[in-house]
From TrEMBL:
The protein's name in its UniProt record: Peptidase S41
Entry's family note: Belongs to the peptidase S41A family.
Coiled-coil boundaries: none
NCBIfam families: prc
UniProt domain PDZ: residue ranges: 88-156
Length: 491
C-alpha cells in the first residue's frame, strides 16, 4: 500500500466532553528526508536530564515523553493534539455517534474552557448550557490553568454520575452553577419535519458516518408527504463539524454530480485534493447510494441554509459549496471559521493504541476562498431573535491562540443575494426606552432549533415564500410538480 496520509479527515472544531469527533484510520506521513536539528536535540536532552535529576519529586520517563509530545503538538495550532489510549478510543466511538459524557463541544479560553456548541438532546443541551458559556470550575475546581484535554477528561465519566459546572455567561451578573448527570450520548445526526405550505425542515447536528444515508432517507420521507414542493430549510446552526466524507455527501444531495465541493492544500501531495460530488468522495456506508437514487428535482428545490457562529468545519464546507455554486441562500450569522484539516495518525509499537491528531491542510471553497479564520458570511444576516443575538457566541477561530494565519486568495467571491437591497431581517425596530430615556432591551426567550418560536427559522420560511425583492419564487415545473420519493427495496 502506498505510504502517505490516508483515511477519513477530521473537520471538527474542537474537543467534545465525552468524545473527540474524528477519523480512526490513517498511515504515517510519507517518508521525507529531513536533517536532524542536533543543537535543538541536545538542548532537549539537557532539559530532560535536568528535570529527571532536580525536579522536586521523581518523574517517570513515560510521563515526561507524553508531556513533551503533547506540548509540541499543542504549540502548533488549536486543533493538533496527542491522543492517549482513552482519547483515541473515544474518538473512534465518536464517529459512530455514541459516546459517554455531557454532549458539549469546547475549546480553550483564558478563564477555563468555552462552549462552542451543546449537542442536541444531550444533558448539556437539556440543562440550557449555551454556546459562548465559559466553564471556569468543574466540581468546584478552578480549571483556568488546566490543559484542554485534561478539562475534557474531567467532564467525562461513567453514565448516571453527577458533575457540577460553574459557568460565566455574558449578560449574567453572577456565575451560574449547573448540575448535570453524565449519560451515554447517542447523537442523532439528522432530524426532519414538515413545515406549512409544502416546505420541509432538516437539521444536521453533527456530520457522522451515517449522516449521508440519514439525510437521503429524510429527504425521501418529506417527498412522500409532498413537503419539498416549495422549498427546504437546511439547519446547520451549532453544528461543530465531523467527517469530511459526510460534508461532501450532504453537498452531493443538492448539487449536480461531479462538481467541486471543497479543496485541500497541504505540504505533501496526499494532502492536495479536490473533493467532488461523486460516490468515491463521500461513501462511508453501503446505504450512501441512496443519494444517487434521490429524485432529480431535489437538485432544484428552493433551499435556505441556516448557520451561526457555532457552525464550523464540515458545516462551513457545505455552506461554502452551496453558496459558491449559487445553489442556496445562506441565512443567519457569520460562521466559526475553522478551515483546517486534521488527520489522525496512529502510532506504532508499544504506542499502537495511541495517535496524534495533526493539522495537515487547509480548506478552500469551490471558488478558492479560504475558510480558515474567515468563516462563511451569510447572504442574509439574521440575528438569533428579533431583539438581537441571544446566544452571545463571540469567539471565532481567529480568536484562538496559535490559529493558522489566513491565506490570501485572489479567487472571486460569490455575489450575495440582492446585495445592497436586502436589509438584515429583524434589525429595523423602533427603540423602547424607559423613564430615563435609556433603551430597554427585553430578555429574549430561550428556544430550541426547529420549534415554532425559532426566529431564524421563521425568517428562512419567509425568505422561501417571498424573495428579497418582494416577489414570489420563480415558477419552475420541475419544482412545483410533486417530487416522487425514491423506491426503497422491501425489507
Amino acid at each position: 500500500m502506498k505510504s502517505g496520509i490516508r483515511g477519513i479527515i477530521l473537520v471538527s472544531v474542537g474537543m467534545i466532553a465525552g468524545a473527540v469527533i474524528g477519523a480512526v484510520t490513517a498511515e504515517p506521513v510519507a517518508n521525507k528526508k529531513t536533517t536532524l536539528p542536533l543543537s535543538e536535540i541536545r538542548q532537549f536532552t539537557d532539559i530532560y536530564g535536568a528535570v529527571k535529576q532536580f525536579y522536586v519529586e521523581p518523574v517517570s520517563d513515560k510521563k515526561l515523553m507524553k508531556e513533551a509530545i503533547s506540548g509540541m503538538l499543542h504549540g502548533l495550532d488549536p486543533h493538533s493534539a496527542f491522543l492517549d489510549e482513552e482519547s483515541f478510543k473515544e474518538l473512534q466511538e465518536g464517529t459512530m455517534g455514541e459516546f459517554g459524557g455531557l454532549g458539549i463541544e469546547v475549546t480553550s479560553d483564558p478563564a477555563g474552557v468555552k462552549v462552542v456548541s451543546p449537542i442536541d438532546d444531550t444533558p448539556a443541551a437539556n440543562a440550557n448550557v449555551r454556546a459562548g458559556d465559559v466553564i471556569y470550575k468543574i466540581d468546584g475546581k478552578l480549571i483556568r490553568d488546566v490543559p484542554l484535554n485534561d478539562a475534557v477528561k474531567m467532564m467525562r465519566g461513567k453514565p448516571n454520575t453527577q458533575i457540577d459546572l460553574s459557568i460565566l455567561r455574558k449578560g449574567e451578573k453572577a456565575p451560574l452553577n449547573i448540575k448535570l448527570t453524565r449519560a451515554i450520548i447517542k447523537v442523532k445526526s439528522v432530524k426532519f419535519k414538515a413545515l406549512p405550505d409544502h416546505m420541509g425542515y432538516v437539521r444536521i447536528s453533527q456530520f457522522q458516518e451515517r449522516t449521508n444515508s440519514e439525510l437521503a432517507k429524510a429527504i425521501n420521507e418529506l417527498a412522500k408527504t409532498d413537503n419539498l414542493k416549495n422549498g427546504l430549510v437546511l439547519d446547520l446552526r451549532n453544528d461543530p463539524g465531523g467527517l469530511l466524507n459526510a460534508a461532501v455527501g450532504v453537498s452531493a444531495v443538492f448539487l449536480p454530480k461531479g462538481v467541486k465541493v471543497v479543496s485541500t492544500k497541504g505540504q505533501v501531495e496526499e494532502a492536495k485534493k479536490d473533493y467532488l460530488t461523486v460516490p468515491a468522495d463521500y461513501r462511508t456506508t453501503k446505504e450512501d447510494d441512496l443519494i444517487e437514487r434521490l429524485p432529480p428535482a431535489i437538485k432544484n428545490i428552493p433551499l435556505v441554509v441556516l448557520v451561526n457562529g457555532a457552525s464550523a468545519s464540515a458545516s462551513e464546507i457545505v455552506a461554502g459549496a452551496l453558496q459558491d455554486h449559487k445553489r442556496a441562500a445562506i441565512l443567519g450569522t457569520k460562521t466559526f471559521g475553522k478551515g483546517s484539516v486534521q488527520t489522525v495518525i496512529p502510532l506504532r509499537g508499544d504506542a499502537k493504541n495511541m495517535a496524534i491528531k495533526l493539522t495537515t491542510a487547509r480548506y478552500f471553497t469551490p471558488t478558492g476562498r479560504s475558510i480558515q479564520a474567515k468563516g462563511i458570511v451569510p447572504d442574509v444576516e439574521v440575528k438569533d431573535t428579533a431583539e438581537g443575538n441571544f446566544l452571545d457566541f463571540d469567539i471565532r477561530e481567529a480568536d484562538l491562540a496559535n490559529h493558522l494565519e489566513v491565506e490570501d486568495t485572489s479567487a472571486p467571491k460569490p455575489v450575495p443575494v440582492d446585495a445592497g437591497k436586502q436589509k438584515s431581517a429583524g434589525q429595523i425596530k423602533e427603540k423602547v426606552v424607559d423613564e430615563k430615556g435609556e433603551e430597554k432591551k427585553p430578555a429574549p426567550k430561550f428556544y430550541k432549533y426547529g420549534e415554532p418560536d425559532d426566529y431564524q427559522l421563521q425568517q428562512a420560511v419567509k425568505y422561501l415564500k417571498e424573495k428579497p425583492n418582494g416577489t414570489k419564487p420563480a415558477k419552475n415545473s420541475r419544482i412545483k410538480e410533486r417530487i416522487e420519493p425514491i423506491n426503497q427495496p422491501k425489507k
